[in-house]
Amino acid sequence: MDILDDLESLKFEYGIPEDERYWLYLQGRYRGLMIKGCAHAVFFCKLFCTLRELLQQGWRTIQSRAVSFDAASMEDETLKVGIIGCGHLGRQLATVLLRLVPIPAENLHISTRRPESLVEFQKLGVRCLYDNASVASWAQVLFLCCLPSQLPNICLEIQNKLEKTCFVYSFVSAIPLPRLKFLLNHNNILRPQYHFTEHFDNIWGETKEITAVLQDPEVIRGTYPYSDVGGVILNIKWLEGVFYAAINVCTARNVFHSHVLQILNKLFLSAHWESCETDKASCPKFQLTDFLNKNYVNTLLHRRPFPWFDLTTVQLKDTPFSQHLSATPTLQNHLTLLYAQSFGITPTEEELSKVPTGSSPQGDEG
C-alpha cells in the first residue's frame, strides 16, 4: 500500500472544492471522539475487572470470620462483555477490549445484523450472532453501539432481559439519559458525554490502527478525564457515575459499607507519587460523607451495605461526590494518575499540574 501514498486521487479529500475543505476538520473530530470513547470504555472495563478481583480477595480473606460478602454471588469468572451494534465504532471497541483490557475472546459476545461479516472476531473465539436479547441477558457490561433510529426497537427487545446489576454503557449520543432509562426500564446506565473546544488540534493518528494509537503517550494524555488536549472534552459526570457504579457492584454482593470504602481506596487510590509518602495528610482517602449526605450517614447502621444508586440520576444531578470531587484537586490528580498508569504511562506531578482540573460543563439533559 505504500506505493499508493502519493496518489492524490486516492485520498479522502480529493475532489472536495478548496472552499469546502475547511469542513475536513470534522473528520478528525469524529476520529478523536471515537478514540476517546474507546479509551474510556477500556479504562472502565479494566477498573471493573480489578474490582471483581478485589471482591474475590476480600471474600477469601474473611470467609472464616463474620462474612459481610454474599458468598453465593462470588463467582470466580472473568467479566462478561456484550456489544450490540458492530459498525465502525463497534468494531473498534471490540478490538481494544480484546487487546488492551484484555477481555478473553470467549467473554465477548457481539450482536449485529450481519454476524457473518465479523470473521476476524469469530476466528479469535468471539461469539458473533444476531440476537440482542441473548447478548443482553448474558452480559454484565453491555455496550450499545447502534444507530439512534435502531435504539427504540433494540430496547424493546432487551428491556426484560437485563439483570438489575448489568451495566448498560451507551454510545448512542442522540438519546438522552432520561429517555434511555424509560426505553430500557433500567437505571444502571452509563453514558459518556463529550463536547468540543473551539480550536481543534488533531493528535489522533489519522492512519494508525486504534490499538497502536492507544499506546501513544501523546494520545493517552489527550484522553485524560480532565484533559482538553485534542479538542474533545469529557463531561466529568461520567467519572462520578463510574464511582457509584463500583458501589452498586458491592451493594449487589451485600458488602458492608466499611469494607466498600476500603475497596474504593484500593481501586481508585492505588496510584501515588513519592510526595504522598512524605506528606500523607495530603493523600486522599474516601469517607462515607463523600458519597452520602450527612443526614443519611447518621442513620446508616455499621453492618449495612450502601444503598442502590440510580446511575442516571447520578449523572444528571449534583451529589455529595460532585462537590467532593470538584473541591479536591489532589483527588483529581490521583485519578488522572490512575488513568494514565492503566495505559502504561506514569506522568510526573509537574506534568499533571498542567492538566486542567475542575468539572467540565454538566449539560443536564431534559
Write up what this structure looks like:
The structure is a single chain. With 366 residues, the protein is an alpha/beta fold. Helices cover 44% and strands 7% of the residues. A six-stranded parallel beta sheet has the order 3-2-1-4-5-6, with helices on both faces.
Brief summary:
Helix content is 44%, strand content 7%. It is of the alpha/beta class and 366 residues long.
Task: Tell me the layout of helices and strands.
Elements: H1 25-62, E1 81-84, H2 88-100, E2 108-111, H3 119-124, E3 127-129, H4 132-138, E4 141-144, H5 151-158, E5 167-170, H6 177-184, E6 189-190, E7 194-196, H7 210-213, H8 217-223, E8 232-234, H9 237-252, H10 257-268, H11 274-278, H12 294-299, H13 311-316, H14 320-326, H15 329-342, H16 349-352
Parallel strand pairs: 1-2, 1-4, 2-3, 4-5, 5-6
Antiparallel strand pairs: 7-8
Properties at a glance:
six-stranded parallel β-sheet; 8 strands; alpha/beta; single chain; two-stranded antiparallel ribbon; 16 helices; globular; 366 residues
Q: Element order, helices and strands?
A: HEHEHEHEHEHEEHHEHHHHHHHH
Number of separate strands: 8
Please tell me how large the radius of gyration is. 21 Å
Shape: globular
Largest sheet: 6 strands, parallel
Mean pLDDT equals 86
The number of helices is: 16
How helical, in percent, are the residues?
A: 40-55%
Low-confidence stretches: 19-25, 62-74, 359-363
Strand content: 5-15%
User: Which class do the helix and strand fractions yield?
Assistant: alpha/beta
